């Protein structure tokens, strides 16, 4: 090959390489893998958001019943409409899944874990977190504030945890709650069907809400039985079968799950009763057992309240029926019959041993109250204890000592 040909071939090779390089597609850089720390940060962020949502729900569900005896006279303010209540949803509040459509009530509020709020120009009797806005837009302001959901919560705990006719029961509760206020009673009577439905939905939301709260406290109190503890799965399964047997051994005092013994002379004497009742109804000034507007319903802890706690604990223990915890639903379909059974057991105990049963209820209530800082409750207990000496002739007692 001539020198000229060689130089031509030599010049073509770099040109070919450049052309191939130009036509070769650029590869996209591989996405960077998230480091372990980054994943942990994201997980913590999600947990924080969940916790914040739960906190919002808890704040929205707290019903305040502060007294307004010294409240100034109401001012006439032009009514305004407020936006619907925030639909923050508590992912852990889905204990009550049963739809109430057949009863004519919308259960969406209770599924969200907080009652929905009716419009301002409707019949509103509110004492919850939105009470300030509601009263500001209302034409009437009364000295004694009433809360539909709170009234329902009290009746669920102290009268009937699983009422059969939800709509009728809610309306009866609401009428009773507003009976002392002529204006509110008239507004309720004149409300149209749509407005009435909204108010009843708001009121009924307190029912599954309080049942879910009691169930959650009982789930935590399962640890008082030493479960899960250091037991094996098969051991836990056997323990649960023994505790939830026909005798409902879990309700007795001095239960020993290892020795399989309990004190038959201490029915409804297990420590979980005082633990759950204190946390649910006497833990703060906002608790229904502490507030002056509802505390009378909780004095000496009546039979329906004990039956509700017993029913919720049975449901909580059965979550460990397989030896590992599998959550169940504390619903009307599953546990209303057991609730009635526990009520019958309590009423039978009262009928057979009336004085013992009265003392039993009073002693638990006294222990709970004395462990709190609420002076008005302690006054109730002290006055009751003083009545035990009614009829005693103190002068005669003193005279008998001096005569000796």
Task: Give your account of this protein's structure.
The chain is mainly alpha-helical and 404 residues long. About 22% of the residues have low confidence. It has two domains: 145 residues, no CATH class; 177 residues, no CATH class. Helix content is 54%, strand content 2%. α5 crosses α6. A two-stranded antiparallel sheet has the order 1-2. The N and C termini lie far apart (150 Å). InterPro entries: DUF6532. This is DUF6532 domain-containing protein. It holds the Pfam family DUF6532.
Please provide a brief summary of the model.
InterPro entries: DUF6532 (IPR045341). The chain is mainly alpha-helical and 404 residues long.
Give me some keywords for this one.
404 residues, mainly alpha, 16 helices, 2 strands, globular
Described by the principal axes of the CA atoms, the overall outline is: globular
State the helicity in percent bands.
Answer: 40-55%
How confident overall, as mean pLDDT?
Answer: 74
Which segments are poorly predicted (pLDDT under 50) over 5 or more consecutive residues? Answer: 60-146
Rg over CA atoms, rounded to whole Å, is 32 Å
**Domain module tally:** 2
Structural class: mainly alpha
Order of strands across the biggest sheet? 1-2
Report the count of strand segments: 2
Succession of helices and strands: HHHHHHHHHHEEHHHHHH
Please report the distance between the alpha carbons of the first and last residues: 150 Å
Strand content is: under 5%
Q: Largest sheet, if any? A: 2 strands, antiparallel
Q: How many helices?
A: 16
Region (Disordered): 1-150
Biased composition (Basic and acidic residues): 13-30, 37-50, 95-109
Domain DUF6532: 151-348
Protein name: DUF6532 domain-containing protein
């Amino acid at each position: 090959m001539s020198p000229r040909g060689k130089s031509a071939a030599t010049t073509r090779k770099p040109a070919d390489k450049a052309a191939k390089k130009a036509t070769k597609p650029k590869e996209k850089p591989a996405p960077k893998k998230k480091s372990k720390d980054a994943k942990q940060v994201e997980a913590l962020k999600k947990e924080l958001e969940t916790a914040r949502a739960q906190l919002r729900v808890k704040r929205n569900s707290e019903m305040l019943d502060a007294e307004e005896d010294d409240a100034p006279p109401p001012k006439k303010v032009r009514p305004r409409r407020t936006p619907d209540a925030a639909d923050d949803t508590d992912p852990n509040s889905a204990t009550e899944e049963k739809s109430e459509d057949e009863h004519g009530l919308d259960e969406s509020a209770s599924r969200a874990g907080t009652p929905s709020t009716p419009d301002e120009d409707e019949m509103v009797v509110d004492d919850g977190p939105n009470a300030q806005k509601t009263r500001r837009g209302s034409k009437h302001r009364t000295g004694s504030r009433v809360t539909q959901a709170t009234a329902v919560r009290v009746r669920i705990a102290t009268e009937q945890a699983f009422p059969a006719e939800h709509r009728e029961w809610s309306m009866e509760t609401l009428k009773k709650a507003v009976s002392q206020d002529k204006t509110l009673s008239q507004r309720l009577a004149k409300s149209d069907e749509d407005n009435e439905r909204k108010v009843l939905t708001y009121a009924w939301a307190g029912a599954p809400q309080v049942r879910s709260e009691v169930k959650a406290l009982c789930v935590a109190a399962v640890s008082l039985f030493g479960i899960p503890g250091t037991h094996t799965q098969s051991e836990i399964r056997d323990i649960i079968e023994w505790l939830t047997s026909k005798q409902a051994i879990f309700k007795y005092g001095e239960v020993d799950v290892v020795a399989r013994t309990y004190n038959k002379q201490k029915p409804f004497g297990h420590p979980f009763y005082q633990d759950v009742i204190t946390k649910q109804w006497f833990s703060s000034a906002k608790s229904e057992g502490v507030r002056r507007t509802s505390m009378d319903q909780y004095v000496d802890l009546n039979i329906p309240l004990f039956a509700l706690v017993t029913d919720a604990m049975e449901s909580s223990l059965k979550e460990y029926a397989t030896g590992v915890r599998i959550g169940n639903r504390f619903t009307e379909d599953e546990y209303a019959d057991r609730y009635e059974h526990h009520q019958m057991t309590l009423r039978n105990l009262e009928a057979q041993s009336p004085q013992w049963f009265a003392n039993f209820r009073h002693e638990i209530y006294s222990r709970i109250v004395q462990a709190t800082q609420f002076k008005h409750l302690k006054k109730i207990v002290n006055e009751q204890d003083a009545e035990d000496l009614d009829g005693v002739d103190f002068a005669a007692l003193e005279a008998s000592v001096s005569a000796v």
